[in-house]
Amino acid sequence: MTLDSLPGDLYHMQELLDDREKEIVARVRAFLEAEVAPIANDCWARAEFPHGLIPRFGELGIAGLAHDECPGERPSSLLSGFLAMDMARVDPSISTFFGVHTGLAMGSIARCGSPEQRERWLPAMGRMEKIGAFALTEPEGGSDVALGLRTTARRDGDSWVLNGAKRWIGNATFADHIVVWAKDEADDRVKGFVVAGGAPGLTATRIENKIALRTVQNADLVLEDCRVPEADRLAGANGFQDTAAILRRTRSGVAWQAVGVMLAAYEIARGYAVERRQFGRPIAKFQLVQDLLVQMLGNATASLGMVVRLAQLQDAGLYRDEHSALAKAYCTTRMREVVGWARELMAGNGIVLDYGIGRYVADAEALYSYEGTREINSLIVGRAATGMGAFV
């Protein structure tokens, strides 16, 4: 399958993919355009998840590419980035669902699980026969969750008893495996547990009335004396530094998602400008409209260059916290500008789903906030730049 040119990729960044990677991206892009794009607005408007697409995603064979326990050649970080970008370009909700499952849930098991645990859980998750969720954020703990984690774990014989609450947990209403992070009452260290969906003592309640990523099924979780076997405690999770290592990797994925949203907004706005006529001519012929499009293209191009270099650092083993933090903060800020300019160019037509941009304007707000706010990521970069922390 041939990889067509990507609107907005002015510097032809996708040409950096090798032939095998281009074939994978082309196949995924065709699937997204044929099966996700036609239903994206309707699912978003009804706040319903298209469960029927999960087996089709499994057939693509991309969920387990990054994990040794799943078949297939390991992908480059560049390929993983382009896949996240393309999903977000079509539907940020679907991209978020996929990132939670593969990056956060599968990533936690791959990094912190024992060999037996990885073999037990990852192959079925890679085939998307089992879906994962990641439960870290709490009702009273977002940016300060590293210090303020309140969910507790107490060892009781050959099991653990979990108590606490989690909030904004994507996929949790239907996930088979939920990675729950809790503080051990005995040693005050953060540990990870794989809790079965529907386990006794676990209640998941869907969060209603969202204005962003409405297709994603976020949930409030309550754990009340929820028992988890010792065999389901992630063997390699022994402190928040292990949790942070997973977030470091997935944070770069959010930067790629932001680029996808920018490319979508640019593509929609450009198409609208060429077709929309005012004062007897297409509005694309007006200087101020062209200026808006060029600003959008500039933001997208600069951000794409940043995340491409980020992927190269990852594969070279030179990747640090400040790299992903700067990319996430910068790209999501530029994304907010781009969707705003696209909405501005489309005037009143920009606030309805019919013309395409309204969903991206709303979804951009969620991407801007999750995986670390701009302020928190700025402090991570500032610490690296000065050698001094300024978090509290």
TrEMBL record:
Alphabetized InterPro entries for the sequence: ACX4-like, Acyl-CoA_Oxase/DH_mid-dom, Acyl-CoA_Oxase/DH_mid-dom_sf, AcylCo_DH-like_C, AcylCo_DH/oxidase_C, AcylCoA_DH/ox_N, AcylCoA_DH/ox_N_sf, AcylCoA_DH/oxidase_NM_dom_sf
Sequence ranges assigned to domain Acyl-CoA oxidase/dehydrogenase middle in this UniProt record: 133-226
Domain Acyl-CoA dehydrogenase/oxidase C-terminal: 238-385
GO molecular-function terms, A-Z: acyl-CoA dehydrogenase activity; flavin adenine dinucleotide binding
Keywords: FAD, Flavoprotein, Oxidoreductase
Cofactor: FAD
Organism domain of life: Bacteria
GO biological-process terms attached to the record: fatty acid beta-oxidation
Domain Acyl-CoA dehydrogenase/oxidase N-terminal: 19-129
Family statement: Belongs to the acyl-CoA dehydrogenase family.
Record's protein name: Glutaryl-CoA dehydrogenase
